[in-house]
């Protein structure tokens, strides 16, 4: 009897394994699938060898083509690379979804909340609310540029004090509170002192949330039960320890604004506007406390991490390219002069500075895999069938480092963004650091003026040099985004 049961079990397991490794009809090419794990082992080995997830995806694209199909656990992951394929993907509404799963729900209390990693009717309502509110609060207009300029001026004064004492300090960490203030004035109507210890710790916590798990959700999203077996190595423990203080800070701020009698019916920041909307009798069901925390977390994280990383790389490339730094400072001196600081109105008169920023964004590729998408239905892309609920990764790195287009993509050369040595900035169709389509980055209108003003003002006022004899590495720290490895600088006041 037991022999028969064993034979039946073995037979069923064998049939399941045979069925489990079968790829859907016309599925994109990619590594072979193993039962249960899919291509997981091959992916892990490649990441360990290449050190970066985006390089692993790029290697698969070189091997299998512009559309690659991978299975990790039960997740089907589609890697889209190259101009034609990425352009086609962004143009199709079927790819406007965001992935679901344990990791993507973990950061929003086990639900699909916020605006960055959700889709559907509630996302439509919340995205419209966020865009409308940020515009009403001045984002993209002169009044919000003034907010950025104020934070830049505060930072310059802070740097002058440090320069006078000859202090050596970390570059990226020194920008964090000023950048946080830019976002936080819009979200909560508040700003903090640049030496606030709690906010420095909080900003560091935000940075670390981007480097625990990769953009596709990691093994935790495929095998959630791993949080019980190996909570640390699966990423569950580290991520939870990082999220809890962020939730606590946001909940504390929201409660303070809610209890402030002067904030009733006021719409002077995103949080108060959300609370007013929530109090309306006919408000949409998506306006909840959990949604407000998740929305703030989305904007809080994205607004600090990406801008901080771009600026960190910008100053790092200046250390490695002093001749470029000299050209930047020469242009600033000739246009802005010694008696004032750069403003947003100077941007059109500073083409070389603009070209340097664009080249930093290209070569650093802070978001190399874009934000993940989800196929909302079965759909055909470039001749391949993409099954519903597949995770779709637009490999922006493949565009911004395309040797056939840029000729020497590994070389830092700002002139590629200038028209034949003239003073006209060139826009390249292979350059889309903020993505494209309906899921284009919400914070683009904030990021562009912030990066420009922080970079040009610091370059205008100071000369920077490495604090160590050897230049810091250009290699990035891997994660959902790429960030520069920590490095220290010395600054000398010019003006």
Account of the protein in words:
A 4-stranded mixed sheet has the order 1-2-7-4. A 3-stranded antiparallel sheet has the order 3-11-8. Strands 5-6 form a two-stranded antiparallel ribbon. It contains 19 helices and 11 strands. It is globular, with a radius of gyration of 24 Å. A hairpin with a 2-residue loop joins strand 1 (67-72) and strand 2. The longest helix is centred in the middle third of the chain and has 32 residues, at 289-320. It has 495 residues and is an alpha+beta fold. One of its GO terms (biological process) is xenobiotic metabolic process. Belongs to the cytochrome P450 family.
List keywords for this structure.
alpha+beta, 4-stranded mixed sheet, Cyt_P450_sf
Low-confidence stretches: none
How many H/I helices?
A: 19
The arrangement of helices and strands along the chain is HHHEEHHHHEHHHHHHHHHEEEEHHHEEEE
Please report the total strand number as a whole number: 11
Helix content: 40-55%
Q: What average pLDDT do the residues reach?
A: 88
- Major beta sheet, strand line-up: 1-2-7-4
**Which structural category do the helix and sheet elements fall into?**
alpha+beta
Strand content: 5-15%
Taking the sheet with the most strands, its summary is:
4 strands, mixed
Described by the principal axes of the CA atoms, the overall outline is globular
> Ends: how far apart?
91 Å
Radius of gyration: 24 Å
């Amino acid at each position: 009897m037991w022999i028969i049961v064993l034979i039946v079990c073995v037979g069923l397991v064998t049939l399941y394994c045979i069925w489990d490794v079968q790829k859907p009809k016309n599925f994109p090419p990619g590594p072979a699938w193993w039962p249960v794990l899919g291509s997981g082992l091959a992916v892990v080995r490649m990441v360990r060898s290449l050190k970066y997830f985006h390089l692993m995806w790029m290697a698969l694209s070189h091997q299998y083509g512009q559309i690659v199909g991978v299975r990790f656990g039960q997740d089907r992951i589609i890697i889209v690379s190259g101009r034609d394929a990425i352009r086609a993907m962004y143009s199709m509404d079927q790819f406007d979804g965001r992935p679901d799963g344990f990791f993507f729900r973990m950061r929003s209390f086990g639900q699909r909340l916020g605006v960055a990693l959700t889709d559907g009717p509630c996302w439509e309502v919340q995205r419209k609310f966020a865009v409308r509110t940020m515009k009403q609060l001045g984002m993209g207009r002169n009044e919000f540029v003034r907010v950025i300029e104020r934070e830049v001026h505060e930072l310059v004064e802070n740097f002058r004090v440090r320069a006078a004492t000859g202090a050596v300090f970390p570059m990226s960490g020194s920008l964090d509170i000023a950048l946080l203030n830019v976002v936080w004035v819009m979200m909560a109507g508040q700003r903090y002192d640049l030496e606030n210890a709690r906010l420095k710790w909080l900003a560091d916590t935000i940075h670390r949330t981007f480097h625990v798990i990769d953009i596709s959700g990691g093994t935790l999203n495929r095998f959630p039960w791993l949080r019980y077996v190996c909570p640390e190595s699966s990423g569950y423990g580290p991520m939870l320890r990082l999220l809890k203080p962020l939730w606590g800070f946001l909940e504390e701020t929201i409660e303070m604004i809610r209890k402030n009698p002067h904030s009733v019916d006021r719409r002077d920041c995103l949080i108060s506007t959300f609370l007013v909307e929530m109090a309306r009798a006919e408000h949409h069901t998506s306006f909840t406390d959990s949604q407000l925390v998740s929305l703030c977390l989305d904007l809080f994280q994205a607004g600090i991490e990406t801008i901080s990383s771009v600026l960190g790389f910008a100053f790092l490339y200046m250390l490695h390219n002093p001749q470029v730094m000299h050209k930047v400072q020469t242009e600033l001196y000739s246009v802005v002069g010694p008696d004032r600081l750069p403003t947003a109105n100077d941007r059109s008169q500073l083409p070389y500075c603009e070209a340097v920023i664009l080249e930093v964004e290209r070569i650093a590729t802070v978001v190399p895999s874009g934000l993940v998408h989800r196929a909302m239905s079965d759909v055909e892309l470039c001749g391949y069938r993409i099954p519903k609920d597949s995770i779709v990764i637009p490999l922006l790195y493949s565009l911004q480092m395309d040797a056939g287009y840029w000729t020497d993509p590994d070389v830092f050369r700002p002139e590629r963004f200038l028209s034949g040595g003239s003073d006209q900035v060139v826009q390249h169709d292979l350059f889309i650091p903020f993505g494209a389509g309906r899921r284009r980055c919400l914070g683009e209108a904030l990021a562009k003026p912030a990066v420009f003003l922080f970079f040009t003002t610091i370059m205008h006022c100071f000369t920077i040099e490495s604090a160590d004899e050897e230049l810091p590495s250009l290699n990035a720290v891997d994660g959902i985004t790429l960030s520069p490895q920590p490095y220290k600088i010395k600054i000398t006041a010019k003006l």
